[in-house]
Amino acid sequence: MRPAEYLLLFFGLVGVLIAIDVPGGPIPVLLVAGALIVVYLRRQRVSLTGSLDLRGVVGLWALVSVLTVAAMAVFDRDNLFVLPRENPGLWLLIIVFYPLVSVYPQELIYRAFLLHRYEPVFGTGKRAAAASAVAFGFAHLLFGNVIAVVATVAGGWLFARRYQKTGSLLVVSIEHALYGITIFTVGLGQYFYHGA
Fold first, then answer.
1. What are the residues whose beta carbons fall under 8 Å from the beta carbon of 107, sequence distance 6 or more?
2. What is the pLDDT along the chain (196 residues), one digit of tens a residue?
3. Is the pTM of this model over 0.90?
4. Which of 67, 70, 93, 156 could potentially form a cystine with 136 if both were Cys, beta carbons 3.0 to 4.6 Å apart?
5. Does residue 51 contact residue 167 with C-beta atoms inside 8 Å?
6. For residue 18, what are the contacts with CB-CB under 8 A and spacing of at least 6?
7. DSSP assignment of 114-148
8. Which is nearest to 101 in space by CA: 154, 173, 48?
């Protein structure tokens, strides 16, 4: 039953939401789904606190950020830091609100809920991380480009493994937010917003 539920929720329902182009974009859907999942996880007595272990998070993020800036400088210099240069107000709003209204609900859905609910199907190791990563990448088909999907499959794997290691929604949300803010800062945001 749960394998079918996983497919229905994360590919069937999400596929429909992508196809119908929900008014207001994905944020309202994320917020409602996140609220429902908080209720579910509380009823299941799932702890989201875990270990506040940030070892490896900042170092890996810094390395990836430097490599991303270098790649942008080589392949797309005109868009390097385009958002903070041309629209610093919007950039600051993204830095403040993106972690709250986008990252945290996504982590509730794709890490806390998915990894808990489907543990009987996928276990607690790499199969579960792969199920999380693939579902996470699939949802990003919404943005209509390969870059968003490939990046989010890789990010989904990283965030799932981090959540499995720490059990902390805060740690994985911080990590996700760091990468997202880097994306919007360095000039890749065009691939990661609704209607890109």
1. 159, 163, 169, 172, 173, 176
2. 999 999 999 999 999 999 997 887 899 999 999 999 999 999 999 998 888 888 899 999 999 999 999 999 999 999 999 999 999 999 999 999 999 999 999 999 999 999 999 999 999 999 999 999 999 999 999 999 999 999 999 999 999 999 999 999 999 999 999 999 999 999 999 998 764 4
3. yes
4. 156
5. yes
6. 139, 141, 142
7. HHHHTHHHH-SSHHHHHHHHHHHHHHGGGG-SHHH
8. 173
Listed residue (176, 169, 161) closest to 130, CA to CA: 161
Spatial distance between the Cα atoms of 30 and 157, rounded to a whole number of angstroms: 20
47: helix, coil or strand?
Answer: coil
Structure tokens at 159: 């965030």
